[in-house]
Write a structure and sequence with these properties.
CATH superfamily of one domain: Histidine kinase-like ATPase, C-terminal domain
Number of strands: 7
Largest sheet: 5 strands, mixed
Structural class: alpha+beta
Number of helices: 26
CATH topology of one domain: Heat Shock Protein 90
CATH architecture of one domain: 2-Layer Sandwich
Distance between the termini: 83 Å
Helix content: 55-70%
Length: 643
């Protein structure tokens, strides 16, 4: 009896393993087939379909490959299945739609499966930043719909869907009145014919216009109504996650709605399809909570983490292969903010750097790169098929490859032995020269890229500052942007110069020009610059440049407010072996007589004081017909001698 039971259990165990392998094999073949169909490799597709387990999806794939028997409904099911898969470039999917999903010839009735395919194509292309192609495909859809009666119910509904793209383009072009008018009309049609998906789509894009109009309460109301409409649908629309994101941001901005924010986060997280969209929103919400908040601890526990660092590592790992670059950027960016809030400064910078790199990738990919990517994918897929078909001959190939490799190594050894020592030395000298040139180019490229990264951060600050209403916060963002520009200017000079040093006279003149543009006023300001043709390396130029930036900015902000004519003097002189003196003075009203550098609250002057210490120098000031700041500092050689 016991032996029979043991035999049965063993049989069940191996049966479960076999079923698991069959499922994995089916998943593997299914993924391959979908890729080959999109890349129009029919021979490879049929080869894999024959290995696929029988079922409804196999029948569907056979119809898609056959094309003549495939219906628009079949194409819709297939395209919905593959559109969310990161391993398939959407440009390939879009090209496939253009080649195989042509407008129906039947003029009696609008084919809703075809219109849905084109609507999803237009939306995805637009979300991926391919606005020109999205507009082209939207025009193809509009031309198809225009062939039907204008009094038909579906004509009006489908025409509204087409017009949503135009509303979005109006928003991008800042024609807000026209865009909002289009969406209001879409809402009217949606309610007249009880088309809930159209109403949800209209609400979603209307939210953007309400943000511009700063109508926070109406923004919340529209998105809450949209969420209620989602519950009436048999399945969630593509706007579901975005709508919840809108509400979380709105409630967090308004304040006092923590319970509602937590409910929305939980709702998004508990939906398997949209769970990945909740990660960046959780990070964003956590960054608003105190370090010892019980809510924060509970959320960490929910994700199996003990602190912000572990939480960020978990959500980054969980989302990096499931989200597109744009959504993954938000995960990295919000993680960086959370880490900074919880005092993980080093890790916060690391995440911010990753976000910046990803931003460059998102905004630097062009058509040439997309075409190259398409060709590369074709080559890789073809190679995989070739390897799969050649498995039976693999042992022979290994033997042949080993023999060829052996002969090649012997030949190389013989050739090397025959080379003369003089020729080897000549080659080595040539390699050393090439390496030096390559190193010089690499160093220049590094400075160029650092400059570009600073410009990207500056652009991000500029974009973010557009949503800031608080004047103090806006001023801080502007000052941070100005500091970043001053550092970017240093790296620009390093990239342009051959000797790796910065001409500080030229740098200060450019910096003054930038700041004068930023702080335009009616006061005429006469600027006198004396630097004795000084050149500094990057370790001295960066902190010194920031010091000069802060002091010049300080003068423009406070010294010349009530003057009809301003005088700004900037001088850097060598005062000893490796020692220099920087003087910045103005003819303003000066500082308070009780002013204490060590107790100053101004971020800019605190920064100057700290940077002066970094240069192993001192920072002092006096009132002499205006504010007069003096910094004594050492160059890099003098600092090294002390260290």
């Amino acid at each position: 009896m016991k032996k029979g039971l043991i035999t049965l259990l063993i049989g069940l165990y191996f049966s479960s393993i076999l079923n698991s392998q069959i499922k994995e094999s089916d998943s593997f073949y299914k993924s391959k087939i979908e890729s080959f169909i999109i890349m129009m490799q029919s021979d490879s597709t049929l080869n894999y379909i024959s290995r696929l387990k029988d079922g409804d999806y196999k029948k569907l794939l056979l119809k898609i490959v056959d094309t003549e028997n495939a219906t628009y409904k079949d194409y819709n099911i297939f395209l919905t299945e593959i559109s969310n898969k990161e391993e398939i470039n959407y440009n390939l999917i879009s090209n496939y739609i253009n080649d195989f999903v042509k407008p129906p010839l039947d003029r009696n009735k609008i084919n809703l499966d075809y219109t849905l395919i084109k609507q999803n194509q237009v939306t995805t292309l637009r979300n991926n930043g391919n606005l020109d192609e999205a507009t082209t495909q939207n025009k193809i859809l509009e031309d198809y719909i225009n062939k039907f009666s204008k009094t038909d119910k579906q004509y009006k509904i489908q025409k509204s869907y087409v017009s949503i793209h135009n509303a979005v383009m109006n928003f991008i072009q800042k024609d807000f009145n026209k865009g909002k008018e289009i969406l209001d009309n879409c809402l009217k049609i949606a309610r007249e014919y009880n088309d809930i998906p159209l109403e949800i789509a209209s609400f979603f894009y209307l939210s953007d216009f309400l943000v511009v109009e700063r109508k926070l309460d109406e923004f919340i109301d529209v998105n809450e109504r949209s969420l209620q409409l989602e519950k009436k649908q048999p399945s969630k629309t593509s706007y579901y996650a975005g709508t919840i994101g809108h509400l979380i941001n709105a409630y967090a901005f308004k304040g006092g709605y923590d319970k509602r924010v937590e409910q929305l986060l939980e709702e998004l997280y508990n939906d398997p399809i949209s769970q990945k969209d909740s990660y960046s929103l959780y990070a964003q919400y956590l960054s608003t909570l105190d370090l010892n908040s019980e809510t924060k601890k509970n959320i960490f526990k929910k994700f199996g983490s003990n602190n912000a660092l572990e939480f960020c590592e978990i959500i980054t790992e969980a989302s990096k292969n499931k989200l597109n670059d744009n959504d993954f950027y938000h995960v990295l960016s919000e993680s960086s903010k959370l880490l900074e809030k919880d005092n993980f400064y080093k890790e916060a910078i690391k995440y911010k750097d990753q976000a910046i790199v990803l931003t460059r990738k998102i905004y630097s990919e062009d058509l040439t790169k997309s075409l190259a990517n398409f060709k590369t994918q074709q080559a890789i897929k073809s190679k995989e098929v070739e390897i799969l078909n050649a498995k039976e001959r693999s042992n022979l190939y290994i033997i042949i490859g080993s023999l060829v490799t052996g002969l090649f190594l012997i030949s190389v050894f013989v050739i090397i032995k025959k080379r003369k020592q003089s020729k080897l030395l000549m080659i080595k000298n040539h390699q050393i020269n090439d390496a030096l040139k390559e190193k010089e180019l690499l160093i220049k490229e590094v400075h160029h890229r650092v400059k570009n990264n600073f410009q990207i951060v500056s652009s991000l600050l500029e974009l973010q500052s557009k949503d800031i209403e608080d004047e103090k916060a806006l001023a801080l963002a502007s000052e941070s942007q100005n500091r970043i520009k001053s550092m970017a200017l240093i790296h620009q000079k390093l990239y342009q110069n051959e000797n790796g040093l910065i001409d500080f006279d030229e740098y200060i003149r450019l910096l003054v020009k930038e700041i004068s543009i930023l702080y335009k006023s009616n006061t005429k300001i006469d600027t006198k610059i004396i630097t004795d043709d000084l050149f500094f390396d990057i370790d001295t130029a960066i902190p010194l440049g920031l010091i000069v930036n802060e002091l010049i900015t300080n003068a423009y902000k406070y010294a010349f407010v009530k003057h009809k004519k301003g005088q700004l003097n900037i001088a850097i002189n060598k005062v000893g072996d490796g020692n220099y003196k920087l003087e910045v003075s103005d003819n303003g009203s000066g500082l308070d007589n009780n002013f204490n550098i060590n107790k100053v609250k101004s971020l800019g002057l605190r920064l100057v004081n700290r940077l002066a210490k970094q240069l192993q120098g001192s920072f002092s000031f006096m009132n002499n017909n205006g504010a007069n700041f003096e910094i004594i500092f050492k160059d890099v050689h003098a600092r090294k001698r002390i260290n």
